[in-house]
Amino acid sequence: MAEGLTHSIVGYSALAIFIFAYLLVMAEEYLKLRKSKPVLLAAGLIWIIIGYAYHQQGEMEVARQAIEHNLLEYAELLLFLLVAMTYISAMEERRLFDYLRAWMVGKGFTFRSLFWMTGFLSFFISPIADNLTTALLMCAVVMKVGGNNIKFINLSCINIVIAANAGGAFSPFGDITTLMVWQAGLLSFTEFANLFIPATVNYLFPAVIMSMYVPDIKPESLQEYIELKRGARRIVGLFILTIMTAVAFHGVFHFPPVIGMMMGLAYLQLFGYFLRKTLPASLAKKRARAIAAHDEAALRRLGSIIPFDVFKRVSHAEWDTLLFFYGVVMCVGGLGLIGYLDLVSHILYTEWNPVWANVAVGALSAIVDNIPVMFAVLSMQPDMSHGNWLLITLTAGVGGSLLSIGSAAGVALMGAAHGKYTFISHLKWTPVIVLGYIFSIIVHLVLNAGMF
After folding, report:
1. What crossing angle do the helices spanning 430-447 and 386-398 adopt, rounded to 10°?
2. Which residues form the Citrate transporter-like domain (predicted)?
3. What are phi and psi of 189, to 5 degrees?
4. Which residues neighbour 166 within 8 Å (Cβ) at sequence distance 6 or greater?
């Protein structure tokens, strides 16, 4: 039935709804309309159209199975991301990121040193903490130190976006797209490490050139004292243990990794219970020490301590992103049932060489969000080698760096550094970023030739 629907009013209507919704998503910055809203509505409308068409043909069971399959795909990723976001929120609440920022700001590094430091940290933190959170943290450092030096802020923001996207490409936890590929069972956890050197090349090539234009002078010294809240370091340890649990569930039992992540949420909940129960005793000890030292500032801080609440951390997850992801999964799933993904798959992966197809898909992710792009490819299920699955993981991850609107990190930083990092300022460096994109692909093709 799908073949007939692609060239019918049903197919055209569903496609038009999706395109219109996605145009609204791309205009999010200007419309101030959260990106989840249009795709949630589009998903509902598309499935109403599909439901009507399949009901007319007496094939409702086929449509029902398709919608349940897409819902299961989404549920696994939703719960996985929810746990990861809860841990990041907990680390933020325990002031771990504030502590890191204060340490960097207070060390008296030059602008060029900070350019490299924020870039390297973005590259190495994003594989664990996701590229959006990492980029916002590093942007806060750059904005704090940069002051009125627009050139430094602009170049550093571009560098952070590239580094965060590249860092997220070689880890199943670094980006939603890599997580999707891992959870689909197309690549093992360790195989993502093959992308480390290509991702490094993608980051370093433009960074080296841009660093030459960053002033090598010291900014005004800023001192800020940040005290870590109790349990901050232990939460980091629990997050690492959670990741190990998810990997073990997937690697040993071949269960979905989300089962291990949900078990990891229990670690955090039990630790939160421990923090709340032991808080009075801990406060009494700290208050006694502060009184003995006549430390009025410490006493004031102790008086404003709020007990750790795991469920408050859950509520602070990026729900707009999670709901946007639902809309995308259901829209693309609906278009796949109609037959459009088979058409695109035939053109890209039958008529084209898969390598060129994956390079083109990566470039497309600079304009269209990489989540629907990757989900569409996974839904097509092209018959590709592990080398090609790694290639599309790389290109979909780093292709978003080509334009400031190509990734969540870029869009977020345009808001955080409003007027100092813009679409046009990023576009000026796109030729250099494109060269980094090309070289990273060449490095992958050469280094991992045996996987193709």
Report:
1. 160
2. 22-397
3. -55, -45
4. 123, 199, 200, 202, 203, 397, 398, 401, 440
On whether residue 348 sits in a domain, the answer given is yes
What is the residue range of 69's domain?
2-229+308-451
Q: Helices 150-169 and 196-211, interaxial angle, to 10°? A: 170
Tell me the C-alpha distance between 235 and 261, whole Å: 14
Distance CA 282, CA 294 (A): 18
User: Is position 129 within any domain?
Assistant: yes
Nearest CA-CA partner of 101 in 112, 90, 114 = 114
pLDDT in tens, 371-406: 777 878 888 788 889 999 999 999 988 998 998 877
Range 85-112 burial, b when 16+ CB lie within 10 A, else e:
bbbbbbbbbbbbbbbbbbebbeeebebb
Q: 273-322 pLDDT, tens per residue?
A: 998 888 888 777 877 776 776 666 655 555 446 677 888 888 877 788 78
Q: Which two tokens stand for residue 301?
A: 């801080």
Contact assessment for residue 232 and residue 90, using Cβ atoms and an 8 Å cutoff: no
Instruction: Map residue 256 onto helix, strand or coil.
Output: coil
> What is the tally of structural domains in the chain?
1
